[in-house]
Amino acid sequence: MNDNDKKKKREAKAYEKYVKNFTPKPHYTMNILKAFIVGGSLCTAAMYVQNVLTETGVSKEMAGNYVTVGIVMLAQLLTGLGLFDSIGKFAGAGVIVPISGFANAMVSTAIEYKKEGPVLGVGGKMFTVAGPVLVCGISASAVIGIIYWVIGVTG
Amino acid sequence: MGYVYTFLIGGAICAIGQLLMDATKLTAPRVLVIFVVAGAVLQGLQLYEPLVELAGSGATVPLPGFGYVLAKGAMEGAREGLLQAVMGGVKAASGGIAVAVSWGYIVSLIFSPKSIVR
């Protein structure tokens, strides 16, 4: 590494420090409290709907599916209407960590790249965030499945 | 009593996500990936099922719940055969994935970036 590179690196570090002085520190306690309350409420509402569905004779598994699908569809519709961002700004992880955040990420990235066309723009960019989640999640499940299969065959 | 656990566990998982996003440089997509894989691994170790039994939606609605469904499906498929073990995860989560993709596509085609207020 020559002196020029070293100098550049030093400058970059100094700049990072300089920027840090002006970046507002997140309000940890407040943000966590909001995420806790909104996230908890969302889960409780989902549980209530699931219980009502089960009482009307829907199987427990399907009731869970209906609730998941309902949250996904609502979150995506709110994203399209431009309301999800306002909710997200207040609740943070409270709506991003539940399945609604996954659904929101698909639509928000797709709409942003709409100019690139319905196939590569909307169809492709839908998976900017959802792609990694699906790839990692499905791969993990396949590995776990294979491990259990091996245990089942050998043990 | 069930609802109390649903609220507490669901809220706690979201609070952990918020802490990860604020305190570390992890961006939201990375947090989502970590949570899904964590849910799958915990279920693989048979640690997530008790949480679901206790908290219901509090454990299944947050993203680790998605990983849990994937892993649970794979573990059930593993009893039938190797291919079923690989298929099982997607099969169990297919409802959510199919709706998220198709409904998300329709919504994205209908609405324009202008509708998103920044």
Describe the model.
The complex is a heterodimer of chains A (155) and B (118). Chain A contains eight helices and no strands. Chain A is mainly α. Chain A has a domain of 97 residues. In chain A, helix 3 runs parallel beside helix 6 and helix 6 packs antiparallel against helix 7. The model of chain A has no long low-confidence stretch (mean pLDDT 92). Chain B is mainly α and 118 residues long. Chain B has one domain. Chain B contains six helices and no strands. In chain B, helix 2 packs parallel to helix 5 and helix 5 packs antiparallel against helix 6. Chain B is globular and about 50 Å long. The mean pLDDT of chain B is 92. At the A-B interface, helix 2, helix 3, helix 5, helix 6 and helix 7 of A face helix 1, helix 2, helix 4, helix 5 and helix 6 of B.
Helices and strands in order, then pairings?
The complex is a heterodimer of chains A (155) and B (118).
Chain A: H1 3-22, H2 28-55, H3 60-81, H4 84-91, H5 93-96, H6 99-112, H7 118-125, H8 127-154
Chain B: H1 2-23, H2 28-44, H3 48-55, H4 57-60, H5 64-77, H6 82-110
Structural class per helix/strand content of chain A?
mainly alpha
The total beta strand count of chain A reads 0
Average pLDDT level of chain A = 92
State the total count of DSSP E strands of chain B: 0
Number of helices of chain A: 8
Shape of chain B: globular
Q: How helix-rich are the residues of chain A, as a percent range? A: over 70%
**Element-by-element helix/strand order of chain A:** HHHHHHHH
Stretches of chain B where pLDDT is under 50 for at least 5 consecutive residues are none
Class derived from helix and strand content of chain B: mainly alpha
Largest sheet of chain A: none
What portion of residues of chain B is helical? over 70%
Strand percent estimate of chain B: under 5%
Order of helices and strands of chain B: HHHHHH
**Low-confidence region ranges of chain A:** none
Mean pLDDT of chain B: 92
Beta-strand content of chain A: under 5%
